[in-house]
Amino acid sequence: MEVVRISSDCISIALDLALEVFMEYEAPVYSQEGIDEFKSFIDANRVNSKLSFYGAYEVAELVGMIAIRDYQHISLFFIKTAYQRKGIGRLIFNRVREDYEKQIFTVNSSPYAVDIYKRLGFMPISAERITNGIKYTPMVLLESERLRLKRYEIDDFKAVYSIFSNPDTMKHYPHAFSKEETINWINRNIKRYDDDGFGLWPVVLKSSGEVIGDCGITMQNINGEMLPEIGYHIHEQYQGMGYASEAARLCIDYAFHSLNIPALYSYMKYTNVPSCRVAEKCGMTLIDEYHDPINIKTKVYCIKNRDKEWISGFIKLLMFLFMHTTLPVYT
Fold first, then answer.
1. Where are the beta strands (DSSP E) in 158-269?
2. β-pair partners for 2
3. What gap in Å lies between CA 145 and CA 233, rounded to an integer?
4. Which domains does the chain have, with CATH numbers?
């Protein structure tokens, strides 16, 4: 089995494979509108496609394909029926990953493929949606050299409670969490996934599978404004090893390149020097200090999305606050 980039003269063969498998497995649960939408996407990419195609070949036969668009979004991913459940999908995806330094991939998964993507390390970031008749679940893979971010589940309680009930870990917060507060923390982030398309995600050590903290994006009231904030909480046992900044950079890249967020903020108690250092290591700049009844004095850091400077940051921020960006289904 060989996995290679598909040349431009063979793209139509790859699109035919995608349409064939779609009609067999996915079309039965779609409306006619959804089927027509998919066919239109296939036809539109037969000429001057801007997607990057990879294929798995058994001798000279194309048996599986994947197509990637800008910012590492998977637009198409299909395996011929006779070659499914043989690890070919993972083989193709691993080959794709070799070509990208940052291991951040997004996909709008069909109902049929959600469990397949989960096995590849993806997590749902919101509930199932329908656009133009296409049913899909937005999903993302977030990995760095040492870490993987996952979706919160109630089964994470034991690991999370050991982190947030630790007085040393929580010394810059009003108090360590009780069991009830930990459960509420988990449930609040699960709700955020559906409401906002993001939240805090457990940070997992790839080497051991251990949950060592959380990191992610939440909407926070910062000095009277609701702003997208990058938050990070690492168990005291693992602090000082660069895990917080590694996870935060991963979330910043995802926020800027996949969610199109114009700016991210981070705020912390003025005595929380380690958190300030993490913000600075991630390229954030101190932009404000204000007094509040909880922290006495709060520091605010910010980093702007430099790729989007051609649009007014103020306008983009207003747009983001009113409606969070949704990834296109197939385009």
1. 200-205, 211-222, 225-234, 263-269
2. 57
3. 19
4. 2-108 (3.40.630.30), 147-322 (3.40.630.30)
The SS3 call for residue 58 is: strand
Fill in the DSSP letter of residue 328: -
- CA separation for the pair 158, 85 (Å, rounded): 34
Closest CA to 49 of 80, 102, 6, 106: 6
Going by C-alpha positions, the residue among 192, 189, 193, 161 that lies closest to residue 177 is: 161
Mean pLDDT across the stretch 167-193? 93
- DSSP type of residue 310: T
Position 182 pLDDT exceeds 90? yes
Cα dist from 69 to 55, 82, 268, 303, 330, whole Å: 15, 27, 37, 26, 9
Q: For 27-64, what is each residue's pLDDT tens digit?
A: 998 899 999 999 999 999 987 788 999 999 999 999 99
Report the distance separating Cα 58 and Cα 17, nearest Å: 14
Q: What is the pTM of this model?
A: 0.85
Classified as helix, coil or strand, 11 is helix
How is 111-179 classified by DSSP, letter by letter?
Answer: GGGHHHHHHTT-EE-S--EEETTEEEEEEEEEE-SSEEE----GGGHHHHHHHHT-TTTTTTSSS---H
The answer for residues whose C-beta is within 8 angstroms of residue 183's C-beta and 6 or more apart is 154, 157
Confidence at residue 116, expressed as pLDDT on a 0 to 100 scale: 94
Report which secondary-structure segment, H or E, holds 302.
strand 296-304
